[in-house]
Amino acid sequence: MSLSGYKQFIEPNDTVILYLCNNLHAVLVQEKIRNKNGILVENVYQTPFGALKVKDLIGVQYGSKVELSKGWGHVIQPTPELWTLCLPHRTQIIYSPDISMILCQLDLIPGKVVVEAGTGSGSLTHAFIRCVKPKGFVFTFDFHPQRAQFAQKEFELHGVDQFVSVKCRDVLTCGFGEELNSQADAVFLDLPKPWLGISWAKHAIRYDKEVMT
Ligand SMILES: C[S@@+](CC[C@H](N)C(=O)[O-])C[C@H]1O[C@@H](n2cnc3c(N)ncnc32)[C@H](O)[C@@H]1O
Questions:
Q1: Ligand 1 centroid distance, CA of 121 (Å)
Q2: Is the Cβ atom of 170 under 6 angstroms away from ligand 1?
Q3: Could you tell me which CATH class the domain 15-78 is placed in?
Q4: What is the CATH number of domain 83-212?
């Protein structure tokens, strides 16, 4: 399943996975980009198989073969699994085999509410979002401001920002906020000293009354 829903043809601002002989590249479809001097120039994506004029992707059908200056590749819609394989690493990330186990052990299905810290590079967050949307929600926290900002920007570009809130906070010191008390179906901590977050996680978890009695 794609990140935000299937579409047939590539549109401006899509994130496209360029598949090149076992290499995956995430390409943001923008006709122009700023160069080192801040000047808007034509967006030409360089690969081991030559250059790709990114504007030429607009209107191309997903799944198609595309010509590069010294070879060819295929353009694919992103999924959380493909995104995990080519996202820009800002931290260590969790990969799909472990993500599958995490989703399963947390009993996540559409409609569930998940609290996550830290956001890191957003690899796990993308999988959480796909799993719980459209009626569920992901609250993700990271105490590193740039990581939180990058993640927010990516969720917007991927059209999934309505299913996730990104907050910059040290969750081991400050917790997840009173507004999340008894709201979460699952809390997942991928950060140093996670045991310090357990008491905060207990506040956030929603307990089923029948299970409690
Ligand atoms: C290993 S990365 C998480 C990777 C993420 N699970 C992924 O798959 O992309 C750990 C993140 O936790 C954040 N972090 C560490 N301690 C934290 C704390 N006390 N509160 C919030 N975030 C924290 C770090 O800034 C870092 O981005």
A1: 8
A2: yes
A3: alpha beta
A4: 3.40.50.150
Q: What type of residue is 211?
A: V
Of 116, 101, 105, whose CA–CA distance to 164 is shortest? 116
CB-CB contact of 154 with 86 (8 Å): no
Q: How many helices (H) and strands (E) does the chain have?
A: 7, 12
Spatial separation of the C-alpha atoms in residues 151 and 213, rounded to whole Å:
40
Q: Whole-structure pTM over 0.90, yes or no?
A: yes
Reply yes or no on whether the pLDDT at 35 is more than 70. Answer: yes
The Cα 16–Cα 57 span in angstroms is 9
- Parse the chain into domains and list their residue ranges: 15-78, 83-212
CA distance 206 to 202: 8
Q: In this predicted model, what pLDDT tens digit does every residue of 130-182 receive, in sequence order?
A: 999 999 999 999 999 999 999 999 999 999 999 999 999 999 999 999 999 99
CB 126 near ligand 1, within 6 Å: no
